[in-house]
Design brief:
Blueprint lengths: L2 H6 L5 E8 L8 E8 L2 E8 L9 E6 L2
Antiparallel strand pairs: 1-2, 2-3, 3-4
Length: 64
């Protein structure tokens, strides 16, 4: 995965919400930001890494 391209899609987004979301695999909630650009909303959930066990990683998902 091209991480530069992955995170570049957030450029220009505005943070419109924040919450902690429970994780089904751990007892630690994930900090989750709701971002908006051009009427489209996405969630950015911050984890330790893609597998949840090392370095930093932000999951970008569609927001409800």
């Amino acid at each position: 995965m091209d991480m530069q391209e992955y995170y570049a899609q957030l450029v220009g987004c505005k943070i419109v919400g924040f919450r902690f979301e429970e994780d089904e695999w751990t007892n630690d909630p994930f900090p989750t930001f709701v971002l908006e650009r051009g009427g489209q909303r996405v969630k950015l959930s911050l984890s330790i890494d893609a597998e949840g066990n090392n370095g930093g990683f932000g999951f970008i998902e569609e927001a409800a």
